[in-house]
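Field guide to reading this record: the first block holds the primary sequence, the second block holds the structure written as discrete tokens, and the final block holds curator observations. Each block starts with its own label. This record concerns Beta-galactosidase trimerisation domain-containing protein, catalogued under organism Cohnella hashimotonis.

BLOCK 1 — SEQUENCE
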Amino acid sequence: MKLHYSMAHEPLLDLSTRDALVANMKKAGIEKIWIAGFFSGDMIDLEELKQAKDFAEQNGLEIGALTIPIGHPGNSLNPDDPDSKLKIPEHWHYRIDNKGGTAYFCGAIDSCLIEDNGNAAKLLRDAGFKEVFLDDDLRVGNLNANIEGCYCDACITEFNAIYRRQETRETLSARMSDRLDTALMKDWVAFQCDKVTAVMKATDIEGVKPGIMVMHFGDERHGIDIAAIREEMPDTLFRVGEHQFTDRKFANPYAKGEEMLGIAYHLNFIDKPFAFSETTIFPPRSLKEHNLVYKAKLAIAAGLENILFMSGTWVMDDSYWKAIADALPVLRAFDHDCVDRERTYPVHLAYGTHGAYAESIIPTSLPVLAGLPVKPLRADQREDDGELLLFFGDYELTQEWQAKLPRYKQVIFDQKAVLKNKAVIEALKAMAFNLVCWEHEATSKPDAVEVSMLQARIGQDTREFPHIVEGGYIGLVWLKNSEKVILYNLLETENQGVVEMSGGKHPVRLKPLSFAVLTGSGSLSEYDTEIQL
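BLOCK 2 — STRUCTURE
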């Protein structure tokens, strides 16, 4: 485990407060900080960046650079700061949506934007920075299932020339909305992905290791082709996209489950040494201190080695640093108990076929809440460790998925999936004995009754993997090679359940929002930190 913090450079130059800030960070175990050097086309004063870098290094902190490469469509830096620089340069042009509207504060990816980002990387390298992490504004869509991109006249003309098509904004918009022309959808998505990858390649210069922060469940429909980026630049750093940055969202058990699914999904593409968490508060003070610590534990449970705390351009208050410092011994002990342990997910949650198909972006977190060792999986990804496939939700049973079904011991369809794929399932059931139709429709916000229903359905058959058989809202990650499981309480109250593993059943009782490691013999080590509701 290595702890990082992303921040603006100015606090490292403030003589009245910087010593206390660095002391707080070091007490909290921060080893590396990332300071922003390029904001939406504007380069930060290089002499100031060098001074900030020198001060951090003199105080024993490693330092990397972060950039805002194209700009966010809104103030997602710090809403408390009305002076935040949001306007893009005059020689850039705005991204245009499929209705012809303008995504203000957000640049379209063209040659001048790419060149400016490449020049920024060179300037940062010459200032002594060896890594440049590009913020998650490097995308061409927002957090939704839709295929977006830039629909300006120049981009459409360029697309038509490359792909030998004759599309207009209106025809493209219609085809991306009705989702019937998959060939066109794939071409348009590939066109957008090439633009994002081009910005990455401009940053991938001698002496600099590039990185990209990927939005929650971000994929090709948002212009982010992780596999292509890795193929072009194998040492790229990635932040795996989390979400729920406020108590209002994160306090819900299903939201915590969605966050874990989002991490696990992105780790399908990324080797863990190159993966960073997005352990974020946004906007300022919107997430309680104990929930920030919980997010860090969740990242450790998922197997992330780099925990990256973030808070926009606002520097976290002393109370947050104290909470992390107080929790640090527990975080380290928890990490030590799980280090070098491969996470195994024999339960797969079907998550569409490919980003270009624009299927539902947030899968149900029901299997997490029911205590199954589960990860989302697309049809174009390997399923070597799969035993049980849960086909829940409005996803299409494509030819790619149909080819995979025989490799699972069992496939369970919920009623939404059955309705979506009724004819295909009926045809397949005549030839397959591993397909089960569950008389329930999984929801996006599962309650305790629904959790119990899934546990009962799972319990109708013998399972070789560990899982929760009684009680709910306890997440489970399997450390198969060490014959252990990680358990995490998704509730802000004490919780209890029964874990079935290694041929036995083990009752467990967990403190509010605590994490624990359970061995096959029934020994439980709990990693509890203080919470203040």
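BLOCK 3 — OBSERVATIONS
The first strand starts at residue 2 and ends at 7.
The radius of gyration is 23 Å.
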